[in-house]
Amino acid sequence: MKYVAVPTDFSDNAYNALLYATRLFPKQEYTIILIHSYESEFSMSTSRIDIGRNEDLYLDIEKRVTKSFEELIHKITRDTEGLKIHFETIMTGFPLFKSVNKLQREKTVSLIVMGTKGASGMRQLFMGSQTIKLIKKIRKLPILVVPENANFTPPKVIALATDFKTPIFTHAINTLKEIIKPNNATVKITHIYNQKSPEHVFEANYKKTKDSLSDVDYTTHWLENTSKKEKVLEEFVKKMDVDLLVLTYHKYSLIKKLFKENIVENIGFHSTVPVLIFTDQD
User: Fold this and answer.
1) Which fold has domain 153-282?
2) 118 versus 181: which is more confidently predicted?
């Protein structure tokens, strides 16, 4: 059984991400695990002195979250009638990334799907949100970030942006193929060239990427680094009508640099295009 983890705070944007997750693997049977972490709420409200008050607060939170889960399951079951999707729920007082790491050890989770909010969605993505914590702390588990304004469009055009400095590992490619094949998608392997890596590393990883995608429809695109990389990528996404952008997160990656430099001003595609992020492989 395939498992997909969907963190939720019961907001509209979280529901939009959940709905996206239910449409991503057409005709497949899988289980979506809904996770709610109340860690931040509980830690801000607890008292080290009044233990009884802490217990009352926990019971209040548990009761409220249980009711919210019941309402959410009722709604999503109605909205996914006819699909072979099962739902499980987890509520936890631990940080979200710890709960996901624990879940990884217990079940074969292949993907996390998260919502991000509003027109400032990419600003949230690159600045200290729960999503950021997951991207930095989760290993070997792709994270799909769904903007609040994204309406589900079957991903027919997928841009895989990579610098070829590190190989894309098998589990990540397999997850990507699980999206590509049932949606009959075309992959556009995209590279913004300004290459400083040793040539043999670049060529080896380029070949590995092509070989790993040999059973799907793909094309390669070399983009000249004429301006900021995020701007070049944005223009490519718009020009090619990309439905899903795939980025890698590693020590030297573009997305890592965006985190470091807080470059968000020139990224405009975030309001509608979901972003699939391959997290650190080691």
Assistant:
1) Rossmann fold (3.40.50)
2) 181
Count Cβ atoms below 10 Å from residue 44 Cβ, excluding itself: 7
Return the higher-pLDDT residue of 222 and 112: 112
Q: How many residues does the chain have?
A: 282
At 251, is the pLDDT very low, low, confident or very high (cuts 50, 70, 90)? Answer: low
For the whole model, what pTM was predicted? Answer: 0.84
Amino acid occupying residue 154 = P
- How far is residue 102's CA from residue 90's CA, in Å, rounded to a whole number? 12
Compute CA distances 131 → 87, 135, 142, 186, whole Å. 22, 6, 12, 27
CATH topology for 1-149? Rossmann fold (3.40.50)
> Angle at which helices 229-239 and 254-261 pack, to 10 degrees?
120
Q: Delimit the CATH 3.40.50.620 region(s) of the chain.
A: 1-149, 153-282
